[in-house]
Specification:
The chain is 40% helix and 19% strand. By secondary structure, it is of the alpha/beta class. Strands 3-2-1-4-5-9-8 form a seven-stranded mixed beta sheet, sandwiched between helices. Strands 6-7 form a two-stranded antiparallel sheet.
Length: 267
Amino acid sequence: MSSDPLNAYYEQDREHERLLQGSNQLEFVRTLELMVRFLPPAPARILDIGGGTGPYSRWLLERGYSVHLLDAMPKHIERVQQDSTLARLESAVVGDARALPYAAASADAALLFGPLYHLTGRADRVTALREARRCVKAGGVVLAAVITRTASALDGLLAGMDADPRFAAMRKHTLDTGLHLPPDPALGWFTEAYFHSPAEVLAEVEDAGLTNAALYAVEGLGNIVPEFDLLWADPERRERLLDLVRRTETDPHLWGVSAHILAVGQV
């Protein structure tokens, strides 16, 4: 994992409340919906790998799950350890998704909501998925999030950032190779990452030995809603949007519109 660009980005402390702001709220709600659908019932033991400052761990703890959180960023783990709402975590450690500190077959499920796009080499991503599979019991499940190949291009188009030649060059490289390489961390653009095509993530999940792999759009068509905050503030419009996203979540023709895809595989 390329630690310097990651540290520079996450030292800005932009991640802590990200899921509570703007269209990121849709990412959070939809990810929770998919967790409810595929995770075993509490008090199952869950590994939150790349768990950041604990938004998903907190939700799991509130519902009676046993949770271990691991993240590559020391600042994230410091925040977790200082947060009283996360005091019931079984553990919260700095670590690497490619070499997990958990025993084989010791958990009922694993979440990877970050590692696969911060590991820019395919072999590293497959290793992280294999590690998650190693730690999950037979019959358990691994949920892994990826950013779609077109996510940055679509964001730039909607925000007018594609007028910047630096962004245009970055966008072209990402679309051609999957590698998202911002030219200057000072710009505040998302850090060095890998953006997947649907076929790539399916192949990586299967190469890691997970079975019955399936993909689900997280934001889906909600990713291109104008004036998102106004829509989201209206309970009826919000529910209509969520209904549409649910109904189209497995349509491969629409996966490229979604900023994130969730891969689900069984052990």
